[in-house]
Structures are given as C-alpha cells and as structure tokens.
Amino acid sequence: DNLRNVARALGKPLDKLRMVTLDKPRLSAAIEEATQLGVKVFALPDGDVAASVLTCWQDNPYDVMYTIGGAPEGVISACAVKALGGDMQAELIDFCQAKGDYTENRQIAEQERKRCREMGVDVNRVYSLDELVRGNDILFSATGVTGGELVNGIQQTANGVRTQTLLI
C-alpha cells in the first residue's frame, strides 16, 4: 500500500516509481514485491542515510526509500528528511525481527525491548516524522570518509588531507 500511496501522491504510475533500498538478505522480500508491482528498484550495498537525503533532493534519482536498518541511522535520516521538507515513517523493530529469530539474537532483542520499555518507546509502532524529530531546530552534518553520492571521501593533498562536509 505504501508504494501505491507514494506513486499516487507523486502523480506517477507504479512503473515510473523509483525505490531505493539496501542490497541485504533481510530486504529481498521487499525488493521482490516492489519489482512485481513494476517499481524500479535500486539496491545499494550500503548508504541508507545518504539514500534518505537523496530522495529529498530536487532532481534526485529516487522517489522513495524502504529499508530495515539501525535506529540511529533512522533518526539521523529523519533529521535530514525533515530539514529538507521531506516525509518519512519508521517502525522500530527488535533485533530478531531485523536479523532473524536465532538463539543468539534473542538475548539482544530482549535487552532492546527492555531498554525501549524503560524509555517509553513502543516496539512495532509506526512513528511519524514529527514523532521521530520533535523540533524544527535541526542541523544535519555529514563528512565523507570513504566517499559516496553525497560527499567525497578523504583526499590526500600536499599539505595534509581534505574532507568534504554537507550541512543541512
């Protein structure tokens, strides 16, 4: 339903919608489902925060992003998306839901759920952008280390090194 809603909001048919995600086994079902709907899927090896920013830029290569990733990356992405005037939703899931229900993951998942309860955060609830980022005084800063679509990586110069930083 989300892809249909995004396509409708953008005034595009599904076969013209461009979705970015990560090329991870945990996302293979979502990639397959989007592809079956006719959506053009771009599966990146990494860079979920960068992809979030790119979906909000004018003349960007992507219309929508779907991924299962870490909570810190989700909040960082939400800050950039809100500062750029975009929109997003996020559902907090536990470690087993993200990485697989294995014995070694269950202890981590239970610790995460306990910590969330203590903080008053609901697992498996969909949060709006305004719930993820409550204020409007937002500063997003990204400095390239290895380089990518947003910023260049560290470059050696005659006098030291040069970095590139994006401020939003």
TrEMBL record:
It catalyses: beta-D-fructose 1,6-bisphosphate + H2O = beta-D-fructose 6-phosphate + phosphate. It is an enzyme of class 3 (hydrolase). One of its GO terms (biological process) is fructose 1,6-bisphosphate metabolic process. Its EC number is 3.1.3.11. This is fructose-bisphosphatase. Keywords: Carbohydrate metabolism, Hydrolase, Manganese, Metal-binding. GO terms for molecular function: fructose 1,6-bisphosphate 1-phosphatase activity; metal ion binding. It comes from Escherichia coli. The gene is glpX. Transmembrane segments: none annotated. Belongs to the FBPase class 2 family. PANTHER family: FRUCTOSE-1,6-BISPHOSPHATASE 1 CLASS 2-RELATED, FRUCTOSE-1,6-BISPHOSPHATASE CLASS 2. NCBIfam families: glpX (TIGR00330).
